[in-house]
Amino acid sequence: MSQAIDFYFDFSSPYGYLGSQRIDAIGEKHNCAVNWRPYLMGAVFKQLGTSPLVSQPVKGPYSRHDLMRSARLYGIDFNIPDPFPVHTVAACRAYYWVQDSAGDERAKQLAQALYRGYFIDNCNVGDAEVVVKTAAGLGLDGEAVAAALQDDAIKARLRTEVDAALEKGVFGAPFFIYGDERFWGCDRIDHLDKWLETGGW
Amino acid sequence: MSQAIDFYFDFSSPYGYLGSQRIDAIGEKHNCAVNWRPYLMGAVFKQLGTSPLVSQPVKGPYSRHDLMRSARLYGIDFNIPDPFPVHTVAACRAYYWVQDSAGDERAKQLAQALYRGYFIDNCNVGDAEVVVKTAAGLGLDGEAVAAALQDDAIKARLRTEVDAALEKGVFGAPFFIYGDERFWGCDRIDHLDKWLETGGW
C-alpha cells in the first residue's frame, strides 16, 4: 500500500458528496488508501470571509444546475436537499466518535449513509436526531452516539481536525491531499488519478 | 455547421488562457464554430463583490500552483506574468475594433497573440502600447488601433459586450455557452465536449 489520499469534505457539500462517490475507486485503482476526513466548511468561510457557493448570487443558480448535470454525467443519484446548506457539527462529531470507537471502516459507512440520506433521501443531516438514527440504522449504539455528540473530548477532537485541515491549506470540498500535493474539487479527481498513475509531473 | 460555442474570457485570466488553448480543437472536433468573446472580469468582480482568485488568501497560492500543474499536464507553454493580474480594457477594445474592421479570424489572431505575449513572454497586456505593438506585429495598422482605443464607438461597443455577457449570466473565465447550456471553467471543457458529442443528457 502506497502513501494515502486524504479526502476532506463537509457533510453539507454537494460537490463533496459527488467526490465521495468517485474517490474510493481512484484509491483502489492505485492500491492507495483513502482517509475520509469530514470537517466544517464554516470554518473556511469564517477564515476567508466567503460563503457557500450555492448561496451566492449568479454563481449559486449556476452551481445548482451544474451539480445536477454533473451527477447525471457520472450516473450518481443526487438531489438538492431542503434545507440546504446545513451545519454539520453533529455529523462530524458522530463520525470521529465512531472512528475512535469502531474503526475507519465503520466511520466511513456512517459517512456514506449520512451523505446518501441527505443527497438522495432528503434527510436533514444538520439535525442531531437524524445523525443518531442514521448511526443506529447501521447497528451502532444510538444512545452512545447521542451522548458522544455532547462529549467534551469529541468536541475537542473535531476542533483539532478542523484546525489541522485549515493548517494544511484545505479550503474546499472535496479537497484531496496526496503527499505534498493538493487537489481542490471534483474537477481535480482526474488530475489526482493521473498523478497517482505517473508519480507526478 | 451546427450551433456555435460562445467562449468568454478576460485577457488577464490564466485559466482563460489555458481554455483558449483547448477550445478550438473541441469546436473543430464537433464541426462547431467558436466565437471568441473577450470581456472584463472586473465588471463581474464589481457586480458580485468578489476579487480575482489568484489575489485571494489561501486560494491564491493554491491556484498559482494548480495553474502551473494544469499547464504542464496539458502541455501548454505558460508562466505567471508580472504584473498580474492587469486591466485589459485596451486589449478588449483593440479586439473588437479588429473584429469589426478585419473580421473574426484576424481578431482571434490578435487575441491569441496577446495571450501568448502575456502568459509566455511576460509582455504586459494591460499596457495600451503593448496592445498596439502586438497588433502591428500581425500586420494590422498600429496607428489605427491606437486611435481606436480612444474611439467612443469602440468604447461603447465594449460596454455593450460586457453588459451582454453579464446579462447572459457569464461570471468567470473561461466561460462557455452552447445554446442554453453554460459551462464555467477549464474544468468543464470535458463536459462541453461530451455535451456536443451526445446532444446533452
Describe the protein in words:
The structure is a homodimer of 201-residue chains. With 201 residues, chain A is an alpha+beta fold. Chain A has one domain (2-198): 3-Layer(aba) Sandwich (Glutaredoxin). The first copy, chain A, has helices at 14-20, 23-29, 41-48, 59-74, 89-102, 104-119, 128-137, 142-148, 152-167, 189-198, and strands at 2-9, 32-38, 175-178, 181-184. The longest helix of chain A has 16 residues, at 59-74. The first copy, chain A, starts with a strand and ends with a helix. The mean pLDDT of chain A is 96. The interface between A and B is medium-sized, with 24 and 24 residues.
Form type of chain A: globular
Q: State the CATH topology of chain A.
A: Glutaredoxin
Low-confidence stretches of chain A: none
The beta-strand count of chain A equals 4
| Global mean pLDDT of chain A | 96
> What structural class do helix, strand and pairing data of chain A support?
alpha+beta
> How are strands sequenced across the largest beta sheet of chain A?
2-1-3-4
Going by CATH, the architecture of chain A would be 3-Layer(aba) Sandwich
Number of helices of chain A: 10
Number of domains of chain A: 1
The rounded distance between the terminal residues' Cα atoms of chain A is 21 Å
Considering residues with a beta carbon less than 8 A from a beta carbon on another chain, report the largest interface and each chain's count: A-B, 24 and 24 residues
How much of the residues of chain A is beta strand, in percent?
A: 5-15%
Please state the CA-atom Rg of chain A, rounded to the nearest Å.
Answer: 16 Å
* Helix and strand element order of chain A: EHHEHHHHHHHEEH
Helicity level of chain A, as a percent range? Answer: 55-70%
Q: What is the CATH homology-level superfamily of chain A?
A: Glutaredoxin
Q: What's the CATH class label of chain A?
A: Alpha Beta
Sheet having the most strands of chain A: 4 strands, mixed
Assembly status: homodimer
